[in-house]
Amino acid sequence: MKRTIRVILAWGLVWILVGAPEALMAAREQGAQVRMTLTNNEVVQGEVIGVRDETIVLLTSQGDRTIGITDVATLFIKDKSGMVIGGFTGLAAGVIADAALWHSYNSDTSDAEAVRGILLLPMIALTCAVVAAGIVGGMLIGNAAHKGKTYKIQGMTPEEIRGLMENLKKKARVPDYK
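RESULT FIELD:
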């Protein structure tokens, strides 16, 4: 009995350590991902660091870049909520798959006790793997399904631009950027 408890605790610690880097990465606040087409047809992609009255500060692959809203022809804002919704959907799918596996495992009548003793730990690992695969798959599908929204800046009124900038300010990594 003591050995079984130790093995279960060891597996639990392994799963915690495997998941720790993901949790640390998720804790970092990120700004909205955007893609801008400038009036000179240059395309700029990056993460919104901050928004001022007339400018947007982006973190691009080349470093920080400040772009005036008057220089932007179109602005595409990627929707982040797809990963969360997809993750919950994947979690539900993983739990349902695990319930089906567990039901088929428990309904086995041939030497049920011996099978349970042999397969208990692999079944726990399989359960964790199915839930994790469901969550990751759901997040990837949700991320692909939620495209985002494109704004044509040149056709917008000054009030609409101010509203867009306020909305973008809420999605920035630093909402009260100075």
